[in-house]
Amino acid sequence: MTVAPHYDPLDPAMLEDPYQHYADLRENHPIFWHEGMKSWVVTRYQDCRDVLRNNELFARDRRRVGEEIPEFRQSLQTLDPPSQAPLRSLIMNAFRAQDLDAVGRRARGRIQQLFKDLAERDSFDWMSEVAAPVALSITADLLGVPEPDPGYYAEISEGIAQRMDAGLKPANIEQGDRARNQLNALAEEWFAGEDRPGVLKDIKDRAAEARMPMHYISNSTGMMFNASYGTVFATAGNAVLTLLQHPWALERLRDERLLGTGVDELVRYDGPAQGTSRVATRTTEIQGTTIEPGQIVLTLLAAANRDPREFPRPDELVLDRTPNRHLGFGWGTHACVGAMFGRVAVRELIVCLLAAPQRLRLAGEPTRRPTATVRSPGLFPVTFDR
Ligand code: HEM
Questions:
Q1: Is residue 4 part of a domain?
Q2: Which of 76, 231, 324 should be mutated for ligand 1, with most atoms under 8 A from CB?
């Protein structure tokens, strides 16, 4: 085994641009042990994809390696096949039953209104004034729940994003757990509240028929809300920052035929999900390194998404990239269930930027949020040309 490389995802230089470091890790350290995170870190595309698609060997459900997690805590995210299958198909079917175009139209209306309100401002912060309200309204609309107060929800989401980094920053645990409790309380209100059209109502209606334990659904409600809000918020930041830094790409997206592949390429190029973990159920090997049962394996999705073995010209934005089997929405049995709606949110932002009477441009140096698992801008000052 080679000496573990220096890898600190919270280092300011890494937050600014992790991709050069990822290239070095991919070439020289396809797998290494990270003592802080007590995890094996896997950096190449094929290895990451193999881990994610082999759920038999690499579990999400820690009960499979002897951890005690009470049954009443289980959700879509914690269960593995075979018990995950009926819940996942119930939820997937509820997503498929939504009117994607109508969700897109409502998102477009919201974005246009925000742009109108912001057009006269000297400058504004894209993240808090556009990405956050767009992520909140598309998520509440899709799930069919009332929109929580934006400031209150932004704090919850921040706490949960920080909690994901607890392996690196144990101090984040307390704030993160408080945020999770606040989210659970909201989810309980939504679950017990009056039904509105949307994913949650469809899931509840079908759950009775499928004889699905109701705690699976109620536990999955808050998780789904935050999985949507957190990633749409971050993608709205990363994708638009990339486009402002590559103005030719935004112009090329006027060609509607490029929108589908273009949105996926933006998620590959600088997506929010930097990595996700699984736990080994048996002794196995990755790149000649032995993994013992019970050890955690962190697949570095964002490093994999720039692997030249899978993506020709990996560091370039190729708007018509085909095929583009990126891992930005995950892979395998826990892959994103809301990917089509995430894509719609980004597409609508692009369409509205292109239709805006004035061009959006940077109004200052953007910063990066100090979070390792979810990557997004921190402050992102912009202005519409006048
Ligand atoms: C562009 C936006 C989005 C991105 C980049 C994204 C990314 C991801 C990724 C990488 C995963 C896999 C995590 C893992 O394997 O550990 C995931 C899972 C998930 N996503 Fe998304 N997502 C997006 C939008 C959404 C939306 C709109 C929803 C709607 C509710 C959603 C709901 C979920 C859920 C529920 C899971 C967990 C699935 C499971 O564990 O079985 N996501 N997402």
A1: no
A2: 231
